[in-house]
What does this fold into?
Amino acid sequence: MSSKKKQSFLGGAAILAAAVAIVKGIGFFYKIPLNNILGKEGKTYFDSAYQIYNVLLSISTAGLPLALSKLVSEAQARGRENEKRRLFSTAIWIFFALGLAGFAVMFFGTRSVASMLHNESAYWAIRALSPAVFCVCLLACMRGYTQGQGNMTPTAVSQVLEALSKLGIGLALAWYIFQAGMGQEYVAAGAILGVTVGTVLSMCFLVGYLATHRSAVEALDVSASRRALASRILAIGIPITLSNSAMSVINLVDTSIVMGRLQNGLGLTEEAAASLKGAYGYAMDMLNLPPSFVFPVTMSLIPVAAAALARRDYEGTDRIISSAFRLIAILALPCGMGLSVLSTPIMRLVLPAQPEAALEAGPHLQVLGFACMFVCVMNLTNAILQTYGKVQLPVLTVVIGGVVKIVMNYFLVGNPDINIHGAPISTLCCYLVIAGLNLFFVWKYSPTKPKYFQLFFKPAVATVLMGGGAWAVYGFMSRALSGHSAYGANAIATLCGILAGVIVYAILVVALRILRAEDLKTVPHGAKLAKLLHLR
It folds into this structure.
């Protein structure tokens, strides 16, 4: 790879990384106030619609845009402009058909889908989100085409535009409907309408961009037929789609079982079941937050591992994989412990308008904090197995974990003594099984076997001590501020506990020499950080 091309690649990656960071930040400022507006029932209606959307989305867009991007990139590298254009014109009809089918399922089958989820009140939220499926399919095609040409800017801009619309329109609509005194099902629909509007605006932006940036280059290459190009796109995209959509399907089935068992197994009304499921949904939002920030840090190591493996540099591969595991341990373990130890205080902090829901969500988050650790390990080991060429194994382990989750939820949630508390327990067991199986397969197929005990022991010790320090400081500050505002006292005590945990953990990481200089080599400004911390 030439210096210019490498710089272009790194520049594109940096643009997408910056866009992801901005989108995550916007998402935080969208989700926290929205959760306070929705309430427990509205949260369930919102999540139900989104889970259906995620399944249709993953089936439509998980692998095909990547396939298009790959084929366009290859055509461009060979100077085959006509083939590149025909690839796009062929793909757009595939995505059009998939989007239309997804829209039809959500719009015309709304009542049946809501009934399948044992959640009739999610009707309006599901219907409000249905046009987004069609728009996102076309968006995915256009993003795949521009990324295949090495141009990441249109994707980044469209993602930020989508997130801003969700924040500005969805949140405003939800607040307006809430203030008008309408039901929570309409509040959820208003919030989700912002997502739909965001996808429409993003699609219009990309249509405009492609219309004004059409290549005027004339080429003499003779492209393959549309049938042949469509076959190539599907051959590459379908296996990736199957791999990436497994968890979305499992989560959708799981939601149906939880709502069904609460109603049919325990005799609750739909509203009461939605209320219980909503409190669990609040805790799940917190579970999903750390992996989205932790994972990109370790992913920077995977391409380097793939290159070392291709050179048959097994010792170098082992060093890189070990660094990835150390970084996951250093980042994921304290995040999970912090969520678990300060579970209820954190939920009270982020849900000031829903104090009852915060108290209900706290015990769920206490269990899910530990699940968070295994989610991060699962993500990393999936990527390592794919690096080793074992692309089917992550699908197998996810399916096994999903079956564990579904079966456990059926029995635990339907037990009156356990109730909704069975949902976080089954989620923890699901990710524990997936992570455990992945770790075994990574060990089995690694040229040099990773030493898991050495990699995780010191971070685990530091994590336990950090958890104790955070809990102690929170307890002390909470007692010291007991005479003040309940929310203000909890907020100050929680933030002090988090700060204490961060300080204790940072000191232990350096004192126990958990982090090494080589672990930071591929992290931005890692060399400077290693020098500052005197790492060897």
Q: What stands out?
A: Confidence is low (pLDDT under 50) at residues 1-10. The two ends are 30 Å apart (CA to CA).
